[in-house]
């Protein structure tokens, strides 16, 4: 089984996949591509220092638009889709990927052209419908600080056109703790993410 992982940041969720699925002796699947839209993403380093080494690719939106003046965001999404398709993945995992894909990307992951469909799943640090979009962790902490919520969570969901609204595949609740600092809370939440990204990937691939 072939997995493509898209990252934008530290890649700690990618690392969880590398450690649990990609690295021998347990290698029920392999990560065949790590693509980032940020050159400085530490996830790229994690891929190139993995063993076996994982091919990496980089394409950022602004430089792409700048060097292709008549191009649009859709063209960028289509180009990323082609780069991913070239790796011939059975599954595409968005792990800390901070770019909202339009329909063009999803269409190209689904379209036939004799190539297999690749489901796309995304990790999101909130419960379904709770804090869609960016800064979910900060918004949850805010509402906890205002006494509006007592729990949040993380989920992995199928990617569809509506941001963070696809069918949840794995959902895990995380209770806030009185007196806990934001940093301690975030550490606990990220730990849950590392578990569910692996669980969801195994589930989808039937590993
Ligand atoms: C994670 O909370 C992820 O859900 C969010 O970005 C954070 C960083 O993830 N989208 P990673 O360390 O880059 O995997």
UniProtKB/TrEMBL annotation:
Question: One matching Pfam family, short form?
Answer: Formyl_trans_N
Q: Name one GO molecular function term.
A: phosphoribosylglycinamide formyltransferase activity
* EC number assigned by the record: 2.1.2.2
Cite the Formyl transferase N-terminal domain residue spans from the record: 1-201
UniProt enzyme class: transferase
Q: Which SUPFAM superfamilies match?
A: Formyltransferase (SSF53328)
Q: Which GO terms describe its cellular component?
A: cytoplasm
Name its pathway: Purine metabolism; IMP biosynthesis via de novo pathway; N(2)-formyl-N(1)-(5-phospho-D-ribosyl)glycinamide from N(1)-(5-phospho-D-ribosyl)glycinamide (10-formyl THF route): step 1/1
Keywords (alphabetical) are: Purine biosynthesis, Transferase
GO BP, one annotated term: 'de novo' IMP biosynthetic process
InterPro entries listed in its UniProt record = Formyl_transf_N, Formyl_transf_N_sf, GART
Quote the protein name from its UniProt record. Answer: phosphoribosylglycinamide formyltransferase 1
